[in-house]
Amino acid sequence: MNKTLLSWAVxxxxxxxAFATTTDTASVTERAIPDLETIIVxxxxxSEPLRQVATSVSVLEEADxxxxxxxxxxxxxxxxxxxxxxxxxxxxxVTTMRVRGEDGFRTLVRVDGxxxxxxTSTQGGAHIQHILTNDLARVELLRGPQGMLYGADAxxxxxxxxxxxESGNRMTVNAEGGSFDSRRYNASAGGSSDALDxxxxxxxxxxxxxxxxxxxxELRDEDGYNNQxxxxxxxxxxxxxxxxxxxxxxxxxxxxxxRCGWPVTQDQCSDAFRQKNARVSLAHRGExxxxxxxxxxxxxxxxxxxxxxxxxxxEGDIQKLNLNGSMALSASQGIVYGLxxxxxxxxxxxxxxWAVYSEYQGSFAERVFFTFGLRHDDSxxxxxxxxxxxxxxxxxxxxxxxxxxxxxxxxxxxxAPSLFEIDxxxxxxxxxxxxxxxEESRGVxxxxxxxxxxxxHLELVLFDQIIDNEIEFDLRDYTYRQYGAESQxxxxxxxxxxxxxDTLQLSANYTYTDTETADNTPRPRRPKQLANLGVSYQPxxxxxxxxxxxxxxxxxxxxxxxxxDYQVLDASVRYGLNDVTTVYLRGENLTDKDYVEIAGFNTxxxxxxxxxxxxx
Length: 616
Fold this sequence. Notes:
The chain is mainly β. The chain has a single domain, classed as Beta Barrel (Maltoporin, Chain A). The chain contains four helices and 33 strands. It has helices at about 5, 60-70, 75, 420-430, and strands at about 40, 50, 55-60, 85, 95-100, 105-110, 115, 135-145, 155-160, 170-180, 180-190, 195-210, 225-235, 240-255, 270-285, 290-305, 310-330, 335-345, 350-365, 370-380, 385-400, 400-415, 440-450, 455-470, 470-475, 480, 485-500, 505-515, 530-540, 545-555, 565-575, 580-590, 605-615. The strands form five sheets. The chain has a 22-stranded antiparallel barrel. A five-stranded mixed beta sheet has the order 3-8-9-6-7. The chain has a two-stranded antiparallel ribbon with strand order 1-2. A hairpin with a 2-residue loop joins strand 29 and strand 30 (about 545-555). The longest helix is centred in the C-terminal third of the chain and has 10 residues, at about 420-430. The radius of gyration is 23 Å and the shape is globular. The two termini are about 40 Å apart. It comes from Microbulbifer elongatus. This is TonB-dependent receptor.
């Protein structure tokens, strides 16, 4: 199959965007079960059907996101296989998403093709707590160290796409209110014609929150959060071969929290977060391939306050220049290739890194699909590093009224010490620390999937991944060190989607993750067992009900203490009054479960929300 031509079938936020703008504009109650023709972008930076994909990818469509209803994407991701989320006291507070037990900074996060990493943070990860769910059309998660084409580390790649219109114009407005004096407002407009397409969105969220810290026993104040997110995207088809795209994103957030200040701890703490992202790209499509040249910039600033006085502030930016392309060698063979330059800056600190990569993609008899890719990175600080990925999928048709896919993949990655880690150790002025060197990761997936004629999808995946030369913060002398040993995460993922009747759908996943640090102790805040059971019920075309029960068990905190085992029940119902107006109710933690995700930080009890959405 000619993968180059196929890659233009979907206009998700791929590295090489499509000239025609398409999306799933079906009712949000129509939640599709994955099949062999489900399009995946994140695995190889181009659109390809799931039948060809040998890596492990989870997909959330607009229907899934709206059915769950949460304000924050981090809460939606809790239902995805192998994803655990640790939150320090409510919406907008420091939140870590771990994939297969790997730290959140190891997962690359992109929104409409824009890398939203923070060069000023400790390890350079993205602030996932500030991503709202408004107008998200698709979320793809590449699980594990298979992000060779992106330079991603062991956690994988989280690729987020905003709404796109297939034709015509659509405007949406929604308002929501509920527990903790929470309010959400959003307005967006999008449209497309033969030559132009666009999307603009403005969202505002406020919550008074609750007392974040269990150690705040005197003030016991509410710790609120505010977020204003503006997002715009436009595309212009200059001709049948040339397309120009631009993306702008601005996130302005403030929050309150407890336990700051030194040597005297205070509970009147706040922070301000501002991130501005921009990306412009020019793409060309020919008969034999496609290419895209893009430039992106992310500017970020953060300030912390203790009793209203600034106690810490930082700012930095990331600039990227990328040339990506794909070329068909024959009807069954093709290559994806790219050249990338990245510059990180934090105040007077800077780092340059170049990369070149290529992946061969082939197939045989439309049953066997395989890839082999290489990447070479050259860092100004740490020299060169090579990484690669190999994968293969084998399709067996006509098995119990369906098809079976066997898959295997092996990938490597690396992470250079962040500017923060280097500067922090440098400030200690201790020659005994030694120089930090890059971490290296490697991981293998072995899996089997069953596709049963759009009514059943089953997946079983075994994974094993290792971080070599991991950088750790040593609490004994408060420095970053490397002991040369390795940490490991291995386990199994079981996923099932079932269309039980025309109106009833069941989804379930279970992940067992066994983790070890360099000294053979469990890695903290990584539950061994994660599970989700979801039910979607649509008794009428205008009414839909979604219920999800999630479970977490057998985790330890950073001090070695046992974390809570817990189950949390969430539900939402949507009712379409007419073709324009939809009202909805959402309940979170319906059983009012009292549990802890991070020692010393409170979690929300039972909460209820109601909203209305207009779409025309």
